[in-house]
Write a structure and sequence with these properties.
It is a single chain. The protein is of the alpha/beta class and 500 residues long. The chain has two domains: 174 residues, Rossmann fold, CATH 3.40.50.10260; 284 residues, 3-Layer(aba) Sandwich (UDP-N-acetylmuramoyl-L-alanine:D-glutamate ligase), CATH 3.40.1190. It is elongated and about 85 Å long.
Length: 500
């Protein structure tokens, strides 16, 4: 507790040095999270700042009680009545990771105080997790008793709640306090620049279009050629050597004119045509702009049956036609390297979930169950994006901005992941690195435009080479110890008018 509180005080001092001069108000709960708050109060008092503490109830654990006694003995003021006195920083130490919702009324009083203080210009720092957020699911208190922090300081590792409830967490700093490494499904592996750098294949000086791999993208029904166009651009900007767009006849001249650097063909009409296409491609991506109907189902089955071991990426309508029929999809995939990239509504249809909210509430589990059943890797899009292999291995990416919340974003991702699957050969790594690069490109484009509002996807696509170049060449930025991992707030990545 002493180490956690002292480390948290150091992070707060670095983040809010100017605001601390106006004083600090610490809101302490009765448990060990409140004990951390008392340590923060004593450390900041020792650093020369004016500190007051309000407690929701007297400390009920021995460690918290001991830290309370030390802090009051060091001159920290215990204020019996909760009021905001213009402090520059308010510390939320009301509830920790073990708390359960809903928030009790004695705690809700403190939550409302943070809201009042934030509206009047105070910076809010949460210890471990903002009060009112479930650490495991990221769910918020149903009655709205939730702290919205500018900074959340947690210990040892990220929790699921930090990734799901980023809008309430603000910037997240993970601090090392000497805890042993944590393992288990509740503690996701976050893919960052350093991991992406380790996984991305380098481009050899003597590379040619064959060694950079061939990607075929099947979709583009009449009136939906734009989806394939975006996917093809994503594949080319990720570094595919050759891209072939395979579309319905009326879409062919549109694609040839819009993307002259891609090869073009019409949908295979027979099994022999499908075999020819599969023999050409290292990876086949199916779905963008395909249309959900019986003809689509027949086309997808023909492609999957043509070459049982050809790696595939399935998206959009190539997934929708197997809604509620995982057994057939699993049989057709037949254990090949396969990446399925549903958004939550598509995941709902695939898994037979009652509604999208169920998918979001079970986002870490539902993709894992489906991946195991059909023996394919599932990339469940969202904030965060969760990529799960059939054997249960999981990677999570948290890059991106609201610029991606527009039609066509998933098509762009299809092309990115198809190229990476062709180059890496591993669907889990291709999905995770692809989602990371896709989100990072959105961040770069948002920064360049100064807004996430109305940002054309072409700009995100144009930023893909820069995102990948950064992963290949930049030295990862390591935070100042004891901070071992940092996650920027959504407001930071989205630019001022894009905050959620």
């Amino acid at each position: 507790m002493a180490r956690a509180g002292a480390a948290a005080a150091g992070v707060i001092a670095r983040a809010f040095g100017r605001e601390l001069a106006r004083g600090v108000l610490v809101l302490a709960g009765s448990g060990n999270n409140g004990g951390d708050g008392w340590v923060v109060a004593r450390a900041l008092q020792a650093a020369g700042y004016r500190v007051r503490v309000w407690e929701s109830a007297p400390a009920r654990t021995g460690d918290a009680g001991a830290e309370r006694t030390l802090a009051i003995g060091a001159g920290v003021e215990l204020t019996p009545a909760l009021h905001f006195d213009g402090e520059g920083v308010v510390v939320d130490a009301l509830l920790g990771t073990g708390a359960r919702l809903p928030v009790r009324e004695d705690i809700a009083v403190g939550v409302r105080a943070t809201r009042h203080a934030r509206e009047r210009g105070a910076c809010i720092a949460a210890i471990d997790l903002p009060t009112g957020i479930d650490a495991t699911t990221g769910a918020a208190d149903a009655r709205g008793n939730v702290v919205t922090a500018h900074l959340t300081i947690t210990f040892g590792t990220l929790k699921r709640g930090h990734l799901v409830a980023r809008a309430h967490c603000g910037d997240v700093a993970v601090v090392d306090i000497g805890l042993p490494p944590v393992r288990g499904d509740d503690f996701p592996m976050l893919l960052d620049t350093a991991v992406a750098q380790a996984l991305l294949p380098a481009v050899a000086p003597d590379a040619h279009k064959g060694t950079k791999r061939r990607v075929a993208i099947v979709g583009g029904a009449e009136g939906m050629s734009g989806a394939v166009l975006l996917a093809a651009r994503g594949a080319l900007r990720t570094g595919a050597g050759l891209v072939k767009v395979v579309v319905q006849g009326p879409s062919l001249p549109v694609l040839q004119q819009a993307l002259p650097q891609a090869l073009a063909a019409t949908w295979p009409e027979t099994g022999a045509d499908a075999d020819t296409l599969l023999d050409w491609a290292d990876v086949i991506a199916v779905g963008p702009g395909l249309g959900a109907n019986a003809a689509t189902r027949a086309l997808v089955e023909r492609l999957l049956e043509g070459s049982p071991r050809r790696p595939v990426v399935l998206d959009a309508d190539a997934l929708n036609v197997f809604a509620g029929d995982p057994r057939t999809l699993g049989r057709l995939l037949d254990g090949r390297p396969a990446l399925l990239t549903p958004h939550p509504a598509e995941m709902m249809r695939l898994a037979g979930a009652p509604d999208v909210m169920t998918v979001l509430a079970e986002r870490f589990e539902i993709g894992a169950r489906y991946a195991h059943f059909v023996d394919a890797t599932v990339l469940l899009k969202g904030t965060p994006t969760i990529v799960t292999a059939p054997d249960g291995r999981r990677l999570v990416t948290a890059t991106g901005t609201p610029a991606l919340a527009t039609g066509g974003s998933g098509d762009l991702l299809t092309g990115v992941t198809a190229t990476l699957l062709a180059q890496l050969g591993d669907a889990l790594y291709a999905g995770a690195v692809g989602a990371w690069a896709h989100g990072r490109a959105a961040e770069l484009a948002t920064t360049q435009a100064g807004t996430a509002r109305g940002l054309p996807l072409d700009l995100v696509g144009d930023a893909l080479p820069d995102a990948l170049l950064a992963a290949w060449t930049e030295e990862p930025v390591h935070p100042q110890y004891p901070v071992v991992c940092e996650l920027p707030s959504l407001a930071t990545t989205a630019a001022p008018d894009g905050a959620r």
